[in-house]
Write a structure and sequence with these properties.
alpha/beta, three-stranded mixed beta sheet, three-stranded antiparallel beta sheet, globular
């Protein structure tokens, strides 16, 4: 079982990330968490979300046969084996190309649940049209389409990059376990964010 830490590196990128969530946890939430931690093997890294831990593990060596079990559609931005117990009758495989398409779709549409806007006026159908000529393989080609869409709304590549970074669930290539740094995606070259700077 994987849990989200108290702090979140995405808030360093976009301070309003998940800022729309009001109120406390549901009744008996913390008692349930304690019971689960007492009975099962669990992991939590302050600064990362449980989604990130799943993405990192699912793409790490030795976990090729692991299955990501979640109701969260965001995890489909991670290649590997997936199972949604509510919607799926059996596990499915998400290819790297499919994961990239899902990620850039999220970058365009945003996510109201997580409070990041994406590109104004672009919903799932419009995003599908924008990305229709891209096979999900070359990130350079896909990113060009995303940036053009943002510029069409009088926004910049930097605006698009913020959205792409918060939309991206981390994989093994996006996190340095030894230095505890998130490797922020950028075609021009990655930038590193120390988790110790997140949890201060």
């Amino acid at each position: 079982m994987l849990f989200t830490g108290p702090h979140n590196f995405r808030k360093k990128i976009l301070p309003t990330y998940k800022g729309n969530r009001k109120g406390g946890k549901p009744l008996a939430y913390w008692a349930t968490v304690r019971a689960v931690k007492e009975r099962f093997r669990c992991d939590e890294v302050d600064g990362l979300e449980a989604d990130d831990l799943m993405g990192i593990l699912a793409t790490s060596k030795g976990h090729e046969e692991s299955i990501v079990v979640t109701l969260d559609k965001d995890l489909r931005t991670v290649p590997g084996r997936h199972f949604n117990p509510v919607k799926d009758s059996k596990p499915c495989i998400v290819t790297p190309a499919q994961a990239n398409l899902k990620w850039f779709t999220q970058t365009l549409t945003g996510d109201t649940t997580d409070n990041y806007a994406g590109c104004p006026g672009i919903g799932p159908k419009r995003a599908e049209t924008i990305l229709s000529g891209w096979d999900g393989c070359s990130l350079t080609a896909g990113w060009k389409l995303v940036v053009e869409a943002y510029k069409g709304k009088k926004l910049t590549e930097a605006d698009a990059l913020v959205q792409a970074r918060v939309a991206k669930i981390l994989t093994r290539d996006d996190y340095d376990r030894d230095s505890k740094e998130v490797i922020l995606w950028d075609l021009k070259g990655p930038q590193r964010l120390k988790l110790e700077d997140v949890v201060k």
